[in-house]
Amino acid sequence: MRQYSADLTPPWKKPRPVPEVPADPGLVVEEPRTGFCGAVVRCEAGTVTLEDRFGKHRVFPLEPRGFLLEGEPVTLVRPANGPVRPTRTASGSVAVPGARARVARAGRIYVEGRHDAELVEKVWGDDLRVEGVVVEYLEGVDDLPGIVEDFAPGPDARLGVLVDHLVPGSKEWRIAEAVTSEHALVVGHPYIDVWEAVKPSSLGIPAWPRVPHGQDWKTGVCRALGWPSDNTGAVWQQILKRVTSYKDLEPELLGSVERLIDHVTVS
Fold it and tell me: Disordered: where is this region (predicted)?
């Protein structure tokens, strides 16, 4: 006698099939049981590793209907080309393959000078283009409160400002304290010039030299290190070439720039 395997589950109670999605690097998904949301950085036999926006990693099993993609359940599968490895931008963020530059936001990040802008572009440029954030330089912050007032920051046009030598009691500190808009964030680093935010080890020097008060800092540094002091712009370009990623920068600068990007990109 023929045996039948009866499935008595009503059709409306059966789980609907969900799409299978390759766990390609940079794909952002959510694990619904934990609420952990992050980008794929690694996919190996039976597991996928996600990284959230704070750099935290979590490993999850590749289970049917195990993730949400844009709010909808999906089954992540191993990519056809085998294990995936993380691809990162110079800032250490997970690179998103094929990502296009976003239309520029109304918000801005202001930095003090050209060298600051070039360094931010070198390390965070890929991230800023994806987020649609424009960086402009001010040639100093002496009139920062007036500049902020003219910009008129608001909920849809947030302003972030990076200030050199932002230490308690300094001139720069007093200027920053005068900015009161809730939609403007002023942060900085403790260095006299952004050159100092580049790690000495990345340049093959033991330390940044001390320059006597009242002497032009860049000129004094070049003289102390035996670098050409008559063209500090050319010296800076050589310094900039030695910066290849966030690992070449001091954490005080890294943290400040990341805070500004987060502030300007708040939805």
Answer: 1-26
